[in-house]
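Hi R.,

As promised on Friday, here is the backbone we talked about, encoded as structure tokens. Could you run it through your design pipeline when you get a chance and send me back a sequence?
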């Protein structure tokens, strides 16, 4: 039996083959995301992986159905595995926002699913760090969110030489469109053409702009000018005050193709241009109103960072730490007459918060020592009378200890 295309198995280190996905790396990425989000005062939430299909079509239109894992369930409901977290979050916030003081600052690490063509950096499932703020319409919230994104990437050892946040504005593009066109029905198609301008050939791009009454040349001229709007200048000033100004630049190539964005938008890219966008997001002040049928109006903004591109970037930059088993003590049992006593000590160590392992079956001392070294244990222990003989595997020094003394020593080292 093989896994489905576009899905992943996660193995503990050492990995069984070079292309295998590491469960230890996944844990490291998740814990890093959580740590930085909590430093910024964000609280963790979660939602169901299966939602009403209507939730996603309300936000993105019927065309999204072709990208979803969707079906009719046993209750005759049209449902889908979540392709993104923002609609679920908007639903949750719309129904409970009165119970929370503003601004609401929440984050999640959901697994998301899309039935689409696999390509480099994009699978049919991935995990994603989502961070969102609700109830704050000022640019301070935009600066806070971009700062969180920057610090999340820096926490992995990435620097300003490795990545850049490209800032743009849907308001700037909306003003540009209104200045050059009176045909509002073409607005979304125009944004889609801008969103693809870096990926499409010049000829293909020209055709798309011509179809909505524009010339590619005038669009490129606007992008190259990179004139910051008042809101973008405020965000840059905010980040500069934090000492993070070198991580951002104005880039109107970024527009974010999704229709619900309303203000500042941004994407994170590696400086060398070797990968897809690392993260992306922006302001969506009308989404809660859309999901709630206009019953709740609440400003919102957020970003998502997937684990697939991030993991590829960390590997390329050689920033993935060496993962060990996490075992601190290996308890050697060389005399079966003291197995019961050994197990008592093992239990005491574990209850004291010390990661401890031992051999289930009789084995020679050398074999158990080898296993301790393979696991990266700090110490090898064994029963000697009523005490524990402890070998420091780094220095090879030995000493007798009680279990409380061993616990205290391990917590200090």
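Update: got your reply. Pasting your designed sequence below so it's all in one thread:
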């Amino acid at each position: 039996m093989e896994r489905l295309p576009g899905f992943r198995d996660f193995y503990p280190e050492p990995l069984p083959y070079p292309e295998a996905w590491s469960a230890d790396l996944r844990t490291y990425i998740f814990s890093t995301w959580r740590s930085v989000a909590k430093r910024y005062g964000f609280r963790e939430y979660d939602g169901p992986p299966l939602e009403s299909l209507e939730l996603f079509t309300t936000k993105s239109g019927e065309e999204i159905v072709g990208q979803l894992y969707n079906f009719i369930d046993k209750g005759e409901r049209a449902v889908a595995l979540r392709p993104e977290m923002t609609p679920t979050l908007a639903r949750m916030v719309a129904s409970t926002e009165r119970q929370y003081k503003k601004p609401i600052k929440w984050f999640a690490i959901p697994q998301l699913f899309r039935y689409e063509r696999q390509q480099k950096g994009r699978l049919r499932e991935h995990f994603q760090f989502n961070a969102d703020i609700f109830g704050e319409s000022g640019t301070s919230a935009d600066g806070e969110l971009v700062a969180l994104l920057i610090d999340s990437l820096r926490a992995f050892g990435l620097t300003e030489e490795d990545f850049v946040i490209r800032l743009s504005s849907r308001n700037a593009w909306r003003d540009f469109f209104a200045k050059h066109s009176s045909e509002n029905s073409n607005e979304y198609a125009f944004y889609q053409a801008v969103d693809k301008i870096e990926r499409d050939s010049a000829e293909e791009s020209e055709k798309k702009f011509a179809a909505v009454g524009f010339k590619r040349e005038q669009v490129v001229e606007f992008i190259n000018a990179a004139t910051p709007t008042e809101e973008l200048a405020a965000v840059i000033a905010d980040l500069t005050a934090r000492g993070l100004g070198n991580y951002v630049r104005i880039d109107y190539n970024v527009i974010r193709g999704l229709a619900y964005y309303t203000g500042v938008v941004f994407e994170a890219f590696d400086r060398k241009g070797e990968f897809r966008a690392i993260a992306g997001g922006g302001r969506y002040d009308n989404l809660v109103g859309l999901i709630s049928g206009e019953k709740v109006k609440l400003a919102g903004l957020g970003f998502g960072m997937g684990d697939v591109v991030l993991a590829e970037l960390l590997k390329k930059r050689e920033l993935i730490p060496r993962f060990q088993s996490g075992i601190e003590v290996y308890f050697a049992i060389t005399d079966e007459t003291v197995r019961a006593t050994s197990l008592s000590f093992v239990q005491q160590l574990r209850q004291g918060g010390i990661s401890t392992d031992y051999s289930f079956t009789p084995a020679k001392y050398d074999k158990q020592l080898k296993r301790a070294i393979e696991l990266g244990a700090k110490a090898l222990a064994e029963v000697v009378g009523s005490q524990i003989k402890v070998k420091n595997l780094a220095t090879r020094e030995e000493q007798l200890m009680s279990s409380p003394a061993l616990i205290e020593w391990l917590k200090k080292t």
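One thing I noticed while checking it: The two ends are 45 Å apart (CA to CA).

Thanks again,
M.
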